[in-house]
Amino acid sequence: MNAIEIRNLTKHFGAKQAVNGLTMTVPQGAIYGFIGENGSGKSTTEKLICGLIPKSGGEIKLWGKDHRDQEVRSQIGVLIEAPGCFPNYTVWNNMKLQAANLGLKNENAEIRRVLRLVRMDGAASNKYKNCSLGMKQRIGIAFALLGNPQLLVLDEPINGLDADGMRIMREILTDLSHCGTTVLISSHILGELEKIATHYGIIRGGKMLREMTAEELNADCPTYVALKTDDTEKARAILERAFGRADIDEQTGEIRVYHASAEDTAKYLFGNFGIAVSEIRTAKISLEEYYIDLMKEGKE
Amino acid sequence: METTKTLQFEKPSFFQRLKGMLGVDFYRLFHTPLFYIFIVIAALIPALVSMGAMGEGETAGMFSNAWQIIAADSPLYIVHNMGEYANMNMVFIFGGIMVSIFIGHDYRSGYVKQLFTTHAKKEDYMMSKTLVSAFSMVCMCFTYLIGGMIAGAATGLPFSINAGSLLCAILGKMIMSLGWASLYTFINIIFRRKFGISIALCFVLGTGIPVIGAAALLGNTAALNIFLYGSSVYACLSANFLSVLVCLACSVIWAIIYNVLGSVILYRRDVY
Fold it and tell me: Which one of A140, A188, B132, B262 has the fewest beta carbons within 10 angstroms of its own beta carbon?
């Protein structure tokens, strides 16, 4: 069963078309990485799913039911932008209010459970306004986890988290996914997303550009040979003529050669031109690189 | 960590939803200094009004009976002097400001965003805010009453009155809190985070200026009782059981109208 099914979703704010005929499918139990540039319609789509804004057209189904249906609404945990907390109340009291709105039984035990999950149990008595950005983000995640929802909608949940916070987040989401909880997560930190996502949706201009599983993405991401030589520019030009495509990674100074093996590349350079290779390895392009390439293709 | 979950959907009843929301709103009300500040303000208003009555200016001698601080002698929509105007109706002016700040915080903090991602319905929100706001205004009416009695005693005005009429007047005004609360909630739903505008508009409507203006054109007609300010004036020291019924009908009907309109707006507009 699919947790989320969206068909021809549209949303306009006056003359601006924020979501433009979006179609999207999120299977139950998936961690769905929702990727797109700023202003591509990610947050708007998430707000539409959560019922925070009314749609202009199309259909949103959660587990086959209308997304506004109360039965399904009680199964969604949400973090969009910052958590909606009263600044002068303690973390605990803010969570008590949300627990009351959710109609939770054993609310104290449930609050303790989620605060422990996000490693915030020691900060329950802190006033919300005194919490750091990272702490607020963790509180937001704890809010979303209250009541053990079947679907989590998280908009940029990793922002503001330190390395340990990101690791905890990964563990929580992976565990939840193993238990059948579906996670829709949007983030610009693609390296982190790549570690946990089982499905991806890439959105641009309010339309779904590509939707795929992690396996499909893996198959779609080309391997390349990364090498270092003394004369980078000369070697790049030679390899481009020989193998069709060779780029220089500006960050590492490596030459990347596609559609060739490490052995062939090294032999070709040294055997024909006497250029020695100091380092060589084979790698796959990352989600971030794949995404950047995809965006470039679209713009061209 | 946990065992695999099976999908179980529960549909919370209207009472379960409202209970949760009312619990949150009452908790917030009792834990905000704002509520207590306005309760004290409501108690101080009659003291300030009676001080004016004791002075030597235009307002001197505007009361001949202590209970006139609570309500006017007769339902006069056209105001001739401050004495006919300065009574318990002033609670509704300050009540509007309080409600605007109270609901404005829901939007500023992002609480509504958190709330409406749960099973909460928009009409539950309207109802809960209306009931809690009405309760706070009833509390303000009580403290105004106590403040008025102390002020009346301090000024040495006579307390002679028909107890039944006085009771009907006080009851009528308290009942009107529901209608006023629904109006103020509705205004805040329209302006949401711009609660400065809500405060200004609630203040203008709370003063009854539109009804007073209409009365200046139409005369002192009972037809003005269809409005919140009209019925609030109708609950006067010559009130009877019928006056209470008129207040009840006016308050409940407007509360329903504003709750329905507010819910429609919440459904059609972006929450956050």
Answer: A188
Q: Which of the four CATH numbers 3.30.540, 3.30.70, 1.20.1630, 2.60.40 does domain A222-284 have?
A: 3.30.70
Helix (H, G, I), strand (E, B) or coil at B64: coil
CA nearest to B120, candidates B24, B261, B1, B251: B24
Residues of B in contact with A179 (CB under 8 A): 1-5
**Residue B154: HSE in the Cβ half-sphere, 13 Å Cα cutoff:** 16
pLDDT digits (tens, 9 = 90+) for B85-139: 889 999 999 999 999 999 999 999 999 999 998 888 999 999 999 999 999 999 9
The reported pLDDT for the residue numbered B50 is: 82
pTM reported for the whole predicted model? 0.86
List where CATH 3.40.50.300 sits in chain A. Answer: 2-219
Rounded Cα–Cα distance for residues B106 and B182 (Å): 16
Listed residue (B92, B73, B93, B97) closest to B84, CA to CA: B73
Q: How far apart are CA B135 and CA B129, in angstroms?
A: 10
Q: Give the C-alpha separation, B72 to B84, whole Å.
A: 5
Dump pLDDT digits (tens) for B6-16. 677 778 888 88
- Distance of residue A78 Cα from the nearest chain B Cα, in angstroms: 7
Residues of chain B contacting A180 with CB distance shorter than 8 Å: 4-6
**Residue B6 pLDDT:** 63
List, for residues B186-232, the tens digit of each pLDDT value: 999 999 888 899 999 999 999 998 998 888 888 888 889 999 999 99
Query: Which of the following CATH numbers is that of domain A2-219: 3.40.50.300, 3.60.120.10, 3.30.750.24, 1.10.600.10?
Result: 3.40.50.300
Identify each DSSP E strand in A108-179 by its residue range: 151-155
Q: Where in chain A is the domain with CATH 3.30.70?
A: 222-284
The pLDDT assigned to A224 comes to 86
CA A131 to chain centre: 25
At A190-234, the pLDDT tens digits run: 888 989 999 999 999 999 999 999 999 888 888 888 888 888 888
Cβ contacts of B24 on chain A, cutoff 8 Å: 97, 100-101
Give the N- to C-terminal CA distance of chain A in Å, as an integer. Answer: 37
CA nearest B4 in A: which residue?
Answer: A179
Instruction: Output the DSSP codes for B185-241.
Output: HHHHHHHTT-HHHHHHHHHHHHTTHHHHHHHHHH-S-GGGGGSHHHHHHHSSTT--H
Residue B71 and residue B88 in contact, taking contact as beta carbons nearer than 8 Å:
yes
Cβ separation A71–B11 shorter than 8 A: yes
Nearest to A120 by CA among A158, A86, A169: A169
Shortest CA gap A54–chain B (Å):
6
Judge: B117–A180 Cβ closer than 8 Å, yes or no: no
pLDDT category of residue A116 using cuts at 50, 70 and 90 = very high
Chain B interface residues (partner A, CB cutoff 8 A): 1-7, 9-12, 16-17, 19-21, 23-24, 27-28, 31, 105, 109-121, 267-272
pLDDT digits (tens, 9 = 90+) for A30-77: 999 999 999 999 999 999 999 999 999 999 999 999 999 888 988 999
